């Protein structure tokens, strides 16, 4: 496994037939490793990027306390057949400081997670665009846990004609249902137990959808769990259109992402499940 720290070192890497890239901010866990396994299935050369991107943090304190564990991350990656790691400094990525030219996530960056964290998705698509340019992958793998991020990245690639395939890997959960996240390390044992309410709410909503309930009843099934827990500071519990992250309601029929964001103690967590409302007819319409 080759460690590169500069764009020049990255560009000098010998290229495989099909390069797969996994973009991370480090503090790696089993969820990241699932992305790497998927990348290994999709390419003969796997490159992992590790960069804590300041542009996507709306609070300086959140950026400052984000765990930086490069040596432990490298040790974790070694047995997984990763060919190269690109771990640039902030000065390498943004040599002039905060960049003048950035990418906008458009309307996707202004709803739900974007509304709760202004500028977050602009920061995400800016760094993804830069890393796609630098790593030049054939395929890039993202985790389904960050559903709105996946939607934004797909829009970036589609609208700006990046020559890359975007693949997603399923959310990895602990046995009790909690989605794996680098932020989980900030949870006390009591807060971690409280956090299980997020996945329970999502599973309740999914069960309601699979039982044939309409969308308002699906959302109500999840909210019933969250509204009764004073330890969860809910930002949103909503149904997203998987094409553009717009919020769905009423008599919608089709595939839907049920997404939640909440604070437990000082830690903000997100999670989601994908399900469908109604069933497709023989003609392909939803009813």
Task: Output the number of helix runs.
Answer: 10
Count of individual domains: 2
Strand ordering within the main sheet:
1-4-3-2-5-6
Give the low-confidence spans: none
SS-based structural class?
alpha/beta
- The CATH homologous superfamily of the largest domain is termed HUPs
Separation, N- and C-terminal Cα atoms? 51 Å
What does the overall shape look like?
A: globular
Please summarize the sheet with the most strands: 6 strands, parallel
Q: What string gives the helices and strands in order?
A: EHEHEHHEHHHEHEHHEEE
Could you describe the 3D structure shown?
The protein has 287 residues and is of the alpha/beta class. A six-stranded parallel beta sheet has the order 1-4-3-2-5-6, with helices on both faces. A three-stranded antiparallel beta sheet has the order 7-8-9, with helices on one face. The chain has helices spanning 7-11, 30-42, 60-65, 70-77, 90-93, 113-116, 120-135, 147-159, 189-210, 215-226, and strands at residues 2-4, 19-24, 45-50, 84-86, 139-143, 165-169, 233-240, 254-264, 267-277. The model has no long low-confidence stretch (mean pLDDT 93). It is globular. The protein has two domains: 2-169, 3-Layer(aba) Sandwich (Rossmann fold), CATH 3.40.50.620; 182-277, Pantoate-beta-alanine ligase, C-terminal domain (Pantoate--beta-alanine Ligase, Chain: A,domain 2, 2-Layer Sandwich), CATH 3.30.1300.10.
């Amino acid at each position: 496994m080759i460690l590169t720290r500069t764009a020049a070192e990255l560009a000098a890497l010998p290229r495989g037939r099909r390069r797969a890239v996994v973009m991370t901010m480090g503090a790696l866990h089993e969820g990241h490793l699932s992305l790497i396994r998927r990348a290994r299935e999709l390419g003969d050369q796997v490159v992992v990027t590790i960069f804590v991107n300041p542009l996507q943090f709306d609070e300086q304190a959140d950026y400052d306390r984000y765990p930086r564990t490069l040596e432990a991350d490298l040790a974790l990656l070694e047995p997984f057949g990763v060919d190269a790691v690109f771990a640039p400094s902030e000065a390498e990525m943004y040599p002039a400081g905060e960049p003048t030219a950035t990418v906008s996530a458009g309307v996707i960056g202004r709803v739900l997670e974007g509304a709760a964290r202004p500028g977050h998705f602009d920061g995400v698509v800016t760094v993804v665009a830069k890393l796609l340019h630098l790593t030049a992958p054939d395929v890039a793998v993202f985790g389904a846990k960050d559903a709105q991020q996946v939607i934004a990245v797909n829009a970036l690639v589609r609208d700006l004609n990046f020559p890359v395939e975007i693949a997603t890997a399923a959310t990895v959960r602990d046995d009790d249902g909690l989605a794996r996240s680098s932020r989980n390390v900030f949870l006390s044992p009591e807060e971690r137990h409280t956090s299980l309410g997020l996945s329970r709410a999502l599973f309740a909503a999914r069960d309601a959808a699979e039982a044939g309930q309409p969308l308002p009843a699906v959302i109500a099934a999840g909210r019933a769990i969250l509204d009764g827990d004073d330890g969860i500071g809910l930002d949103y519990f909503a149904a997203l259109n998987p094409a553009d992250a717009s919020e769905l309601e009423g008599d919608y029929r089709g595939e839907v992402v049920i997404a939640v964001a909440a604070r437990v103690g000082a830690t903000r967590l997100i999670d989601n499940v994908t399900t469908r409302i109604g069933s497709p007819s023989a003609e392909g319409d939803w009813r």
